[in-house]
Design goal:
This protein is α/β, with parallel strands linked by helices. It has 16 helices and 18 strands. It folds into three domains: 213 residues, P-loop containing nucleotide triphosphate hydrolases (Rossmann fold), CATH 3.40.50.300; 79 residues, no CATH class; 178 residues, Nucleotidyltransferase, domain 5, CATH 3.30.420.240.
């Protein structure tokens, strides 16, 4: 094999010897693969032979150079093979034009003998007619990739793609790639939920065609602050000579990943530079922007409603007891497969502990029976969301409750009533109050989450503000537990309704004894 054939066939040699890029200082320099990029290229997935049949998921921190190395890889494949279509898809037009500009620099600085004829060159496409190959860039909103065969597909910053049915959109694009074509999905994290989060979880369970690569900030040796520069650090984060003032997360990073103190100081400095560093109630330094930009952390990234630092379970479910003051809330659903869930929470009003919870896909009448049976055991006041199917649930629940009171003469529990009707109505104004009060209660530890409540914890962790600052679940996830817990916490304001109603029934076990 002659020298040119070696250059064309070996990707690493091709990049090292032939490709040029602009560095962070905008200077034209030879593309020198860093250790992280080189390690990825040597471990990327393939079927049959390297560079064919790739299915990669890359969860990354910023500035590792993954977008650039993927551009180099797919550029090489496009200009050294016939009839090859490469499509690059991102979340905004400016970023995609920058990618094509990087490819243009790679092309224009190739030796003339290795530079295929370029005919069409616009802000969205570059074509090579002698090869019948082309490179196309687009945003995910353009939706043009579904109608053509794609040999190389790069989807970048997927966690930031907005809109409904992103999974369907991506499925349509990936179906355009033959089995020996290449697909790479790479992004920094953006909170729990959405297509990429679910794809990563499936890959971790080995239940996916994709190979997962995770590259947090500390794999990059450049991310270190030398000791001689510590004196320049602001006092708020500067270590003392004999005391580094390490918090629990910093100690964990050192013990778990072998980080050194210079790396920890770089992390502190970067957090403060991003202007959103704060100290949690447990003294841990936190920065949402750092988590999003540099860590592979779904938990702390994204525009979260509830901070993961205080979403820590601290109790277990409890059996009914006469001295408990129970507040409860329910969010209802139609109970259909793949739909929303019906959810019921019970809290001990005095301690804030989660006493019990049920969640399932039940029809309204069945959910009403389950609420009734649960409240008959625990007592207290229950607020049931009236919106949509809530009317049917409340109607049946009131029927069961009235029958029980009439037949037994004992009022075990009470259904919230606003003075006009049974049930809780969530409106625009009180919905915001629900979330503000719930966030404050969780942050201050007034509500204690149960170890058994895995679904509720996940919903709280994933709940995010949308572009209009409305609290909602990400695509493909639910907020039923969040709403029922929020309504439950509102019921503390109306517990006296239960007390007053219970007083009307002499000998009521659920009233007089509790009072």
């Amino acid at each position: 094999m002659n020298a040119q054939a070696v250059l064309l066939s070996n990707l690493e040699i091709y990049i090292d010897r032939l490709l040029w890029i602009r560095n962070k200082s905008k200077k034209l320099v030879k593309f020198a693969l860093n250790n992280i990029q080189r390690s990825y290229l040597r471990n990327r997935s393939y079927s049959g032979q390297p560079g064919r049949g790739q299915r990669d998921l890359i969860l990354k921190g910023r500035q590792h150079g993954f977008s650039t190395v993927k551009l180099a890889e797919f550029f090489h494949d496009t200009v050294t093979n016939n009839a090859t279509t490469t499509v690059l898809v991102g979340h905004d037009q400016e970023a995609m034009e920058t990618m094509l500009s990087t490819i243009r620099i790679m092309y224009e600085n190739l030796p003339e003998s290795m530079r295929p004829l370029r005919k069409y060159d616009s802000k969205n496409e570059m074509s090579f007619p002698t090869l019948g190959s082309r490179i196309i860039v687009m945003t995910y909103r353009m939706k043009k990739a579904r109608s053509q065969t794609i040999n190389n597909l790069l989807m970048t910053e997927v966690a930031f793609w907005k809109g409904k049915n992103i999974g369907d959109l991506i499925a349509g694009m990936t179906e355009s790639v033959p089995i020996d074509g290449n697909i790479c999905i790479e992004t920094t994290p953006n909170g729990i939920g959405g297509y990429f989060y679910k794809a990563v979880q499936e890959a971790k369970k080995k239940n996916s065609v994709y190979k997962l690569f995770e590259y947090p900030w500390f794999v990059n040796p450049e991310y270190s602050l030398p000791r001689e520069k510590w004196s320049l650090m602001p006092k708020a984060i500067r270590p003392e000579k004999t005391d580094y003032k390490l918090d629990t997360m910093e100690k964990f990073l050192i013990s778990q990943w072998g980080l050194n103190i210079s790396q920890i100081m770089w992390r502190r400095f970067k957090m403060l530079s991003l202007e959103d560093m704060r100290i949690s109630t447990k003294g841990v330094r936190l920065s949402r922007r750092f988590s999003q930009e540099y860590e592979c952390s779904f938990l702390q990234s994204g525009n979260s409603v509830f901070d993961a630092s205080y979403l820590i379970p601290s109790c277990t479910y409890s059996m009914p007891a006469n001295d408990m003051k129970i507040i409860a809330g329910a969010d209802t659903s139609e109970g259909v497969p793949d739909g929303d869930f019906s959810s019921l929470y019970l809290l001990n009003m005095d301690t804030g502990e989660t006493v019990y919870k049920i969640r399932g896909l039940w029809k309204p009448t069945e959910f009403a029976r389950r609420i009734h049976n649960t409240m008959m055991m625990y007592g207290g006041i229950i607020g049931v969301e009236l919106n949509n199917t809530g009317h049917a649930v409340v109607g049946k629940l009131v029927e069961l409750w009235e029958k029980e009171v009439e037949e037994s003469g004992v009022m075990k529990y009470y259904i919230y009533n606003d003075g006009k009707k049974w049930g809780w109505t969530t409106l625009v104004n009180n919905r915001k109050t629900i979330f503000i009060d719930l966030e404050e209660a969780l942050r201050k530890g007034n509500i204690k989450l149960a170890y058994e409540d895995k679904n509720g914890l996940l919903e709280l962790q994933s709940c995010q503000y949308n572009d209009k600052m409305k609290e909602e679940a990400p695509e493909g996830m639910h907020d039923d537990d969040v709403m029922s817990l929020g309504i439950t916490w509102q019921m503390r304001k109306y517990y006296q309704q239960y007390v007053q109603a219970a007083d009307q029934y002499e000998g009521s076990e659920g009233g007089a004894t509790i009072i």
